[in-house]
Amino acid sequence: MATTAVTLSVIAALLEIGGIALTVMDISKARRRLAGYLHRGRTVYGSAALNVEAALSLTVTRANSTVEQRVEALETQQQNLKEELDRRDKQLMDRISSRFEGELKASEQTLDDKLTGLRDYVGGAEEHWWKAYRGPLVLVLGVVVGLLANISSAAS
């Protein structure tokens, strides 16, 4: 009986040491994976900058124009001014809208890259439950075998 208790005690000690070693290795592996994730390259996407266009064109009249011609030119410019302002307002809104959409898409792409990296990090740990918990399970098995060794020793 004493031989059985000693054998079970040795097996229990080996299992406990092995379980602790496996747990430490798994923790080290997880730390390396986390460090790899934290140090991976980051890509930040940007959108194109606004284009700059020419300013309002002006019509230059000759200095020897009559007053009526000058008034007529001013009235024409005043009528064209409303159309020019409407055109520029529409153009500005189109630019702002396209710029906003570009920035939104760039931000979405940047966040998508970060999420993909996070999914790869978390999903990379997908493994069979036995492999994920093998260290603690071997340790528990060692404790159970140690308990059996104590029971066997007490019985003799």
Q: Would you give an account of this structure?
A:
Helices cover 77% and strands 0% of the residues. The chain is mainly alpha-helical. The N and C termini lie close together (6 Å). The mean pLDDT is 82.
List the helices and strands and how they pair.
Elements: H1 2-38, H2 67-123, H3 129-132, H4 134-155
Helix pairs in contact: 1-4
Strand content: under 5%
Radius of gyration, whole Å: 39 Å
Into which percent range does the helicity of residues fall?
over 70%
**Helix and strand run:** HHHH
Question: Major beta sheet, specifics?
Answer: none
Number of helices, where a helix is a run of at least 4 consecutive DSSP H or I residues: 4
Low-pLDDT stretches: none
N- to C-terminal distance: 6 Å
Helix/strand-derived class?
A: mainly alpha
| Secondary structure: number of strands | 0
Average pLDDT, rounded to a whole number, is 82
The outline comes out as rod-shaped
Name a few traits of the molecule:
mainly alpha; rod-shaped; 156 residues; 4 helices
Task: Give me a quick take on this structure.
This protein has 156 residues and is an all-alpha fold. It has helices at residues 2-38, 67-123, 129-132, 134-155.
